């Protein structure tokens, strides 16, 4: 994930010498998966606020989950849980609680590459190692940007309780000299 102008940037030492390969792989797994969720969330924020959803869900994205009917919410929760359990069985070693001496927890499988859960229905994953590394770097960079962007969208909605587009409209009026509070 190192690109100019920052190059190798690890101020908190997540990949410093002395860290085990499993720790580095686990941190990479977390970064890739959180980046993927943030990329989906950034689209969800904008699309969810642009169109009224099923069940009459509307308004700022931060408020939309509470508007879901309970059965739909529990179906969504079950779907997410099943996907997470599937991901865990693909990439993670089963915990070993037999002995405190060989206590094994939070270990990735040796043959597992962080983020590679085998789901590529459109065939985007390159076969060439260099092309794969390039694509992985782009995914990491886009995921990092999406995590920052979604954090900003979430914070903005918590502060002013307006949709993203409603906030843009508000500030366009402010900067053009129009009172945004007048109808």
TrEMBL record:
<dbReference type="GO" id="GO:0009507">
    <property type="term" value="C:chloroplast"/>
</dbReference>
<dbReference type="GO" id="GO:0016168">
    <property type="term" value="F:chlorophyll binding"/>
</dbReference>
<keyword id="KW-0602">Photosynthesis</keyword>
<feature type="binding site">
    <location>
        <position position="144"/>
    </location>
    <ligand>
        <name>chlorophyll a 1</name>
    </ligand>
</feature>
<dbReference type="InterPro" id="IPR022796">
    <property type="entry name" value="Chloroa_b-bind"/>
</dbReference>
<feature type="binding site" description="axial binding residue">
    <location>
        <position position="36"/>
    </location>
    <ligand>
        <name>chlorophyll b 1</name>
    </ligand>
</feature>
<keyword id="KW-0157">Chromophore</keyword>
<protein>
    <recommendedName>
        <fullName>Chlorophyll a-b binding protein, chloroplastic</fullName>
    </recommendedName>
</protein>
<keyword id="KW-0934">Plastid</keyword>
<feature type="binding site" description="axial binding residue">
    <location>
        <position position="94"/>
    </location>
    <ligand>
        <name>chlorophyll b 1</name>
    </ligand>
</feature>
<feature type="binding site">
    <location>
        <position position="142"/>
    </location>
    <ligand>
        <name>chlorophyll a 1</name>
    </ligand>
</feature>
<dbReference type="Pfam" id="PF00504">
    <property type="entry name" value="Chloroa_b-bind"/>
</dbReference>
<keyword id="KW-0150">Chloroplast</keyword>
<dbReference type="InterPro" id="IPR001344">
    <property type="entry name" value="Chloro_AB-bd_pln"/>
</dbReference>
<feature type="binding site">
    <location>
        <position position="139"/>
    </location>
    <ligand>
        <name>chlorophyll a 1</name>
    </ligand>
</feature>
<feature type="binding site">
    <location>
        <position position="34"/>
    </location>
    <ligand>
        <name>chlorophyll a 1</name>
    </ligand>
</feature>
<dbReference type="GO" id="GO:0030076">
    <property type="term" value="C:light-harvesting complex"/>
</dbReference>
<feature type="binding site">
    <location>
        <position position="31"/>
    </location>
    <ligand>
        <name>chlorophyll a 1</name>
    </ligand>
</feature>
<dbReference type="GO" id="GO:0009765">
    <property type="term" value="P:photosynthesis, light harvesting"/>
</dbReference>
<comment type="similarity">
    <text>Belongs to the fucoxanthin chlorophyll protein family.</text>
</comment>
<dbReference type="GO" id="GO:0016020">
    <property type="term" value="C:membrane"/>
</dbReference>
<comment type="function">
    <text>The light-harvesting complex (LHC) functions as a light receptor, it captures and delivers excitation energy to photosystems with which it is closely associated. Energy is transferred from the carotenoid and chlorophyll C (or B) to chlorophyll A and the photosynthetic reaction centers where it is used to synthesize ATP and reducing power.</text>
</comment>
<keyword id="KW-0437">Light-harvesting polypeptide</keyword>
<keyword id="KW-0148">Chlorophyll</keyword>
<feature type="binding site" description="axial binding residue">
    <location>
        <position position="105"/>
    </location>
    <ligand>
        <name>chlorophyll a 2</name>
    </ligand>
</feature>
<feature type="binding site" description="axial binding residue">
    <location>
        <position position="156"/>
    </location>
    <ligand>
        <name>chlorophyll b 2</name>
    </ligand>
</feature>
């Amino acid at each position: 994930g190192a690109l100019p102008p920052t190059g190798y940037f690890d101020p908190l030492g997540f990949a410093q010498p002395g860290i085990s390969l499993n720790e580095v792989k686990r941190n990479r797994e977390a970064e890739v998966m959180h980046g993927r969720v943030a990329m989906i969330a950034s689209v969800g924020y904008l699309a969810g606020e642009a169109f009224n959803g099923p069940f009459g869900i509307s308004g700022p994205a931060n408020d939309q989950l509470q508007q879901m009917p309970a059965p739909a919410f529990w179906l969504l929760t079950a779907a997410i849980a099943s996907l997470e359990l599937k991901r865990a069985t693909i990439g993670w070693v089963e915990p070993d609680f037999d002995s405190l001496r060989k206590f094994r927890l939070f270990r990735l499988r040796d043959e597992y590459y962080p983020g590679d859960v085998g789901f590529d229905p459109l065939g985007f994953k390159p076969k060439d190692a260099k092309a794969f590394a390039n694509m992985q770097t782009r995914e990491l960079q886009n995921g990092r940007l999406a995590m920052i962007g979604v954090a900003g969208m979430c914070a903005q909605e918590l502060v002013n309780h307006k949709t993203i587009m409603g906030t843009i409209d508000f500030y366009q009026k402010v900067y053009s000299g129009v009172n945004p509070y007048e109808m």
